[in-house]
């Protein structure tokens, strides 16, 4: 495999080759970071969207990171790639909501610390600013699912919590149904109830 030629090189050196451009170097980086992008995409739960759509947006962000990386300004390509991937995903989501005629100010970042003003932990990295008029535009940070469940635990049944957790792992309705021994329609109904309950929760924020 031609990838062997990049062994012993840093990502920053390989990026420099990819920018020349070197197609093999570009392909190597896209493949190397593919799982990184998938993991990052899984951090975002967009009800009504295909997980692969979010992954594709992340890959576009990765390509832009390779194209725009400047080693004299940034020492770590990985950190820059993470920034570009995240930015691309969030931009795509905002664009999608605009196309659905949702007001531009319907998106907000809940960067308010959970515990105290000194804490870096936020309730949600990104969630709908106020409440989007379209429930499909609801974005939830998967990393903080446990915090969400803790705060709205009284609103979700055990079944709904399990369905939401499995859905946020990227499982399909069929896979969730098989794992829980439920019909696909039952899974769909549970997710619809979860949407309504989460929107009620957001309206109180």
UniProtKB/TrEMBL annotation:
Limits of the HTH luxR-type domain:
170-197
GO MF entries: DNA binding; sigma factor activity
Record GO biological process: DNA-templated transcription initiation
Q: By its UniProt entry, which InterPro entries does this protein fall under?
A: RNA_pol_sigma-70_dom, RNA_pol_sigma-H, RNA_pol_sigma-H_factor, RNA_pol_sigma70, RNA_pol_sigma70_r2, RNA_pol_sigma70_r4_t2, RNA_pol_sigma_r2, RNA_pol_sigma_r3/r4-like
Location of the RNA polymerase sigma-70 domain: 53-66
- Coiled-coil residues are none
Keywords, ordered alphabetically? DNA-binding, Sigma factor, Transcription, Transcription regulation
* UniProt-listed NCBIfam families: PRK08295.1-2, PRK08295.1-4, PRK08295.1-5, sigma70-ECF, spore_sigH
> Per its record, how is this protein called by name?
RNA polymerase sporulation sigma factor SigH
What are the top taxonomic ranks of the organism?
Bacteria, Bacillati, Bacillota, Clostridia, Candidatus Pullichristensenella
State the gene name recorded for this protein: sigH
């Amino acid at each position: 495999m031609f990838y062997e030629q990049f062994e012993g090189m840093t990502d920053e050196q390989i990026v420099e080759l990819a920018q020349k451009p070197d197609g093999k170097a570009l392909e190597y980086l896209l493949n190397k970071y593919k799982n990184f992008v998938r993991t990052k995409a899984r951090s975002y739960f967009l009800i009504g969207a295909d997980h692969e759509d979010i992954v594709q947006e992340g890959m576009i962000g990765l390509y832009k990171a390779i194209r725009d990386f400047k080693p004299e300004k940034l020492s770590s390509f990985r950190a820059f790639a993470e920034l570009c991937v995240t930015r691309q995903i969030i931009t795509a989501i905002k664009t999608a909501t605009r196309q659905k005629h949702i007001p531009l100010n319907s998106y907000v970042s809940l960067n308010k610390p959970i515990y105290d003003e000194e804490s870096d932990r936020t309730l949600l990295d990104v969630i709908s600013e106020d409440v989007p008029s379209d429930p499909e535009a609801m974005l939830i940070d998967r990393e903080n699912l446990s915090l969400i469940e803790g705060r709205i635990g009284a609103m979700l049944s055990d079944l709904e919590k399990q369905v939401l957790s499995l859905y946020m792992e990227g499982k399909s309705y069929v896979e969730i149904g098989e794992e829980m021994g439920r019909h696909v329609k039952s899974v769909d109904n549970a997710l619809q109830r979860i949407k309504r309950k989460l929107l009620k929760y957001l309206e109180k924020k």
